[in-house]
Design a protein that fits this description.
The complex is a heterodimer.
Chain A: E1 4-7, E2 10-13, E3 19-25, E4 32-38, E5 44-51, E6 57-58, E7 67-73, E8 76-81, E9 90-97, E10 104-105, E11 109-113
Parallel strand pairs in A: 2-11
Antiparallel strand pairs in A: 1-3, 3-8, 4-5, 4-9, 5-6, 7-8, 9-10, 9-11
Chain B: E1 9-13, E2 18-23, E3 31-38, E4 45-50, E5 53-56, E6 61-64, E7 70-75, E8 84-92, E9 105-110
Parallel strand pairs in B: 1-9
Antiparallel strand pairs in B: 2-7, 3-4, 3-8, 5-6, 6-7, 8-9
The chains are: A mainly beta, B mainly beta.
Chain lengths: ~110, ~110
């Protein structure tokens, strides 16, 4: 299947700093990318949907100024957690979808804010 | 978006066939059914997708009755490495990434 690469796989940052997570589709053009958050032993929660070249659409309850999403090309989307706090610690997962494909998921990023 | 209901957990033994059923009573006409597998601290991995009747690939089969209000993922001869969480998603084919993840089924395969 198609490959979606997420980087970094694990990051620890200090409270108050910002962290950027990258999501790349390696062998197909991702017209749509999705960002999820997952708490331990819980299901994935969709945070936002981004289409290449346009602003992301955020799910209800997700702060768009807190979680900045950029989808500048058909192969790259980034999620920046701004002014991170310990409650932002979580597992963040991206998925990418082409115009006629199912969604492929990245390997996830474990964010720990200390 | 159609809501899905799956058993919270299932146990099995190596070599057995495992069937996980998902209920999706409000499935829409253009919705597809997709199953994903997730290991701890990894992103979900696509297993199989179908619209109706039966779909089979190298790892699983998907059975969908005529009314499409449920579906069954069948894993033949499971091994210990199949221990994972399995998610059933229902949504439009071209918008599968926006489908709502339910609680999933935690499958534990025992030796």
């Amino acid at each position: 299947g198609a490959v979606v690469s997420q980087h970094p796989s694990r990051v620890i940052c200090k409270s108050g700093t910002s962290v950027k997570i990258e999501c790349r589709s390696l062998d197909f053009q991702a017209t749509t990318m999705f960002w999820y958050r997952q708490f331990p032993k819980k299901s994935l929660m969709l945070m936002a949907t981004s289409n290449e070249g346009s602003k992301a659409t955020y799910e209800q309850g997700v702060e768009k100024d807190k979680f900045l999403i950029n989808h500048a090309s058909l192969t790259l989307s980034t999620l920046t957690v701004t002014s991170a706090h310990p409650e932002d610690s979580s597992f963040y997962i991206c998925s990418a979808q082409g115009p006629d494909t199912e969604a492929f998921f990245g390997q996830g990023t474990r964010l720990t804010v200390v | 978006l159609a809501k899905t209901t799956q058993p919270i957990s299932m146990d099995s033994y190596e070599g057995q066939e495992v069937n996980i059923t998902c209920s999706h009573n409000n499935i829409a006409t253009n919705d597809y059914i997709t199953w994903y597998q997730q290991f701890p601290s990894q992103g979900p991995r696509f297993i199989i997708q179908g619209y109706k009747t039966k779909v089979t690939n190298e790892v699983a089969s998907l059975f969908i009755p005529a009314d499409r209000k449920s579906s069954t993922l069948s894993l033949p001869r499971v091994s210990l490495s199949d221990t994972a969480v399995y998610y059933c998603l229902v949504g439009a084919y071209t918008n599968a990434g926006k489908s709502t993840f339910g609680d999933g089924t935690t499958l534990t395969v025992k030796p």
